Amino acid sequence: MIEILSASELTRARAAGTLVANILHTLKSRCTVGTNLLEIDAWAKAMILEAGAVSCYVDYAPSFGRGPFGHYICTGVNDAVLHGLPQDYALADGDLLTLDLAVSLKGIAADSAISFIVGDAKPAESVAMIEATERALRAGIAAARPGARIGDLSYAIGSVLGEAGYPVNTEFGGHGIGSTMHQEPHVPNMGRPGRGYKLRPGLLLALEPWVMADTAQLVTDPDGWTLRSVTGCRTAHSEHTIAITPDGAEILTLPTVAG
Description:
Layout: H1 7-30, H2 37-50, E1 54-55, E2 74-77, E3 80-82, E4 96-105, E5 108-117, H3 124-142, H4 150-163, E6 174-176, E7 183-187, E8 204-207, E9 210-212, E10 218-220, E11 227-229, E12 235-237, E13 240-245, E14 248-251
Helix pairs in contact: 1-2, 3-4
Subunit structure: Monomer.
Binding site for a divalent metal cation 1: 100, 111, 239
Keywords: Aminopeptidase, Hydrolase, Metal-binding, Protease
């Protein structure tokens, strides 16, 4: 299913995007050495419920997971890059943490992810990997406009990641979003320009470049959810929800809170 949102639905999408971004911003500010992943999940739950929103994850049970997910946020540490199931783990200095959050507010969903390093240690390789996903995300957004095709966005994202020297997995990538979290079209992180669905105003997309330092292969944890690099290398993930407008792309998941 591909949805094209009305003006009133886009207004609700903006509110959902701002909520997601503000929650992620607040969580990042709270994450220090010793913070437990289960604490992060509890904080996310409290903020979602206080806002009158609905988690897109708690009851999420796709065919590839061992569902329902049962938590309010995805937390990936170091080699865990996607669908990280929160567990009893205290963050250590230098850990690379990915937080991925999707909520629905008044019937419209928004989805975003950030990766950052906890504590004072800042391994150069991890910093470079995070920055590469952020650059790729900006490139994908810059390519998004009415008349462009999904392949144009995928090519822009994949070019940045490839030039940075990272293998690219195309099994999991970006996606359409709207009244539900995951919709068509699929937006792989590598592709050919001029191919795929033609973008129209009112379309919402969640673009999410993610990489692993030295592999494109994933392995699933025994928990049935957490996806890790098969080699144990570090990983990074950046994501925004955008709306296609007559003038280009509007980023919906930007924080408005200070700090």
